[in-house]
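This part of the workshop introduces the protein records we will be handling. An example says more than a description, so a record of this kind follows.
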Amino acid sequence: MAYNRKSIQDALQKAKRPELARILSGAWDLPLAEYSKSLWQTLSETPSMEIELRQAFEAEFCRIGFNEKQAKRYSTELERTRVLQTATHLTASEGPTFLALHYLALLGMPQGSTYFVGSYSGVPFANAAWSGCLNFSNRIDLDSVISVDAPGFAELKRADKDRVRDSSDRRISLIPGKMRDTRVFKSSIPEKMADLMTYFSKPILEISPKAKEGDDFTKWASNFCTKQLGNIFPSKSVIYFDLNEVISKYLELVISNSNHPIYKLFFDNAVRNSVFAVFPSDTPLFTVNVNNKNKMRQESVVLNGDELHSQNYRLKLTPENLINEIKSGALCPGLFIGFTAFSFVNGFVCFGSFEQVEYLADFKKKWMALDLLDNEIVHNSNTSAFTSGRCVNESGEGIFPLDMLFGLEKKFNENQTVQELLEPLLSRLL
């Protein structure tokens, strides 16, 4: 079925995606370049970025390998532009949907700007983006990606044959099976990944940082994806980082300030009760890794009175306890806290996909009903910066960033419409 502005709006409303319906009814037949340019149009005057958030950005940029001078420069740019891409999960390599939304976002980026990709790491490795895998399509033979001499190649080959039979999406897992349900945030490079990485072919090794067992996986993945996308769009300045690391550092700092709204959210009973009278009382605030029946898995953590808890985790809520658990990496901040800090306290435009535009609009409506945050900042926050799509070939098969590293030519067409970029996703959306 061919959709026009009105019919796609009706279909999305029926699918209970009201914000996406509103956004696409206005953008459906726009050329990508025109739509992308609109994404980067921000308020002429933005609120001052909190010093705690600036310090958190600088700490993360230093963690992933930049020097202090570079970290300060990038943080200054973020304070000026106030734009982040927040649609992606932190992965070893990305897929056709992430490639499409990056292309869409980059089309309209002002000259001389940097594309900051804050990848979300508060997910298990076995999420839909397959964070622990190198992902590619069936256009590439397995032994072109990794040497037949790699440890466990026969097993990789058997798994690949099974996957080819059922799907055009292919992947090589870099993690052992026991890590599938563990959280990407604060994870370490496992022995399997360190052993495999030296056996990958030249296009991968040319962009891959050294993978040493025990080193920080999220640092490795951020740098890998930075080089991967930079290779595909060489004229663009691109930086990936761990969004959850930034929010963790930010929380360490603001929870020490009893006048800060996020401190009050946790420790002022009147404020806490008013917030969770508007937001659901079971709103996930953090995630935690737990060992349940000798198997690690991620659980959502909610607030109940003076206690944070999940099914298998309990924490008596005091500023000291909360800061210690955040510093240790036990608690990983969730979407609610992260986007409250970015969008509704610091006025960032957060590019996001179809789920994000729905829950950000809901967050905004609820924060407007409260008196905890600066209502002008909340009112002016842009929750409609939608980026998504899927890069496909003429046959409708997905195109992966790794495909392009291996020589697949993909001619991006900026005159393509928003509709054309999104059509391969419609069955999922509707």
Notes: The chain has a mean pLDDT of 95. Residues 250-338 form one domain.
